[in-house]
Design brief:
- By secondary structure, the chain is an alpha+beta fold.
- It contains 14 helices and six strands.
- Strands 1, 2, 3, 4, 5 and 6 form a six-stranded mixed sheet that branches.
- It is elongated and about 110 Å long.
- 26% of the residues are buried.
Length: 353
């Protein structure tokens, strides 16, 4: 260490000497930063979650030491950020403390630490002070980037976990198990309409559908572009209202298979089973909306091979005995059903009397 004529410490060992002076005040610095972090952005978690508060205090201590060590070693020092800081970022995500709050608290602590550095400035030349503040700034940027990444990673992990838990609970309820449904955030003692939605932007489409119908929504992913959903409410949802909401072309890439309205837990299960059957029909005959009530016979035939074969043997095979192999009869039947079983309309389309 070198000392100038006016008693100021030279830059050769300036960083280490500055850190030594600051370490003598560590308790004061940590307490001040802890208080500033809480006062800068008040949050109810600070008062209600003892584990979170303890983690915040431990993080302040660890980060102060991390910063001082980094200043002492220089800007090229690349030691990992403290594990307690990582744990606190994850705890903040789990506790519902916003990322903005977390980062604002780090910024408040950084400013206060800079103030403490400045109070020691009179003992060191300006070059040392600038180098220390630059190093402190680089360490802060590195710390903020790491904390942000850990927070977002935890949010993503929790999101997947929550989604998985909800999906598993839904599967067990559909299987007939009696479970606590509070975690679903969806009432079961109401009217339900089961929906299976597929396509790009399916979640947004369901949310718009929920908003337009004034219903609560329960939705779980079942694949990358498929969602099992239920629209619930105190009154029975008319399918005509649903068709009206789908009149817009905004969600043209999304297709819906829907069951029929059902009430209570049994109705919740039944309307989903119906939606599954309608979805099976939609896989063979794609369209934007497939309703179980309009396709129940075809749905049953697709699910039951014996039924499908029996229907074919009873109603279609006899047509093969006609001179044309039944082609005219088949065409006539298709036109008749397409016309809503209206003989006059079917005849008009077939151009026959």
């Amino acid at each position: 260490m070198s000392v100038t004529e006016n008693g100021r410490v030279g830059s050769l060992d300036g960083h280490a000497d500055l850190v030594a002076r600051l370490r003598l005040r560590c308790s004061e610095i940590e307490e001040a930063i802890f208080a500033r972090a809480q006062d800068a952005v008040p949050d109810p978690v600070d008062k209600e979650d003892a584990e979170y508060v303890a983690g915040l205090r431990a993080t302040v201590t660890a980060v102060v030491d991390y910063g001082l060590t980094g200043v002492e070693r220089g800007e090229e020092w690349a030691w990992p950020i403290p594990s307690v800081a990582v744990a606190q970022a994850q705890r903040a995500a789990r506790s519902g403390v916003g990322l903005e709050t977390v980062l604002l608290r780090y910024a408040a602590g950084h400013r206060l630490m800079s103030d403490f550095v400045m109070t020691e400035a009179d003992h060191f030349p300006g070059q040392t002070l600038r180098q220390v503040l630059d190093t402190q700034g680089l360490l802060f940027e590195r710390l903020i980037a790491a904390i942000s990444a850990e927070y977002k990673r935890e949010v993503k992990r929790m999101g997947r976990s929550l989604e998985q838990r909800r999906a598993e609970r839904v599967q067990r309820l559909l299987a007939g198990e009696l479970l606590d449904t509070a975690e679903l955030g969806y009432e079961l003692d109401v009217w339900h309409l089961g929906v299976i939605a597929t396509g790009v932007g399916v979640r947004e489409a369901l949310r718009r559908l929920m908003a337009g119908s004034n219903r609560q929504l329960l939705a779980v992913w079942h694949g990358e572009e498929t969602v099992w959903a239920w629209l619930g409410g105190q009154r029975r949802l008319a399918v005509a209202d649903l068709e009206r909401l789908l009149a817009t072309k905004r969600d043209a890439d999304v297709s819906l298979a829907i069951g029929e309205p059902g009430r209570g837990i049994e109705g919740w299960r039944l309307t989903h089973d119906q939606a599954q059957a309608a979805r099976l029909v939609a896989l063979h005959r794609p369209r934007r909306l497939t309703r179980y009530a309009e396709e129940m016979l075809l749905a049953a035939a697709l699910r039951d091979k014996t039924l499908a074969r029996s229907l074919k043997e009873l109603y279609l095979s006899p047509l093969a005995g006609e001179r044309d192999g039944g082609s005219v009869s088949r065409e006539t039947l298709r036109a008749y059903f397409a016309a809503g079983r209206n003989a006059a309309t079917a005849a008009h389309r077939l151009k026959v009397d």
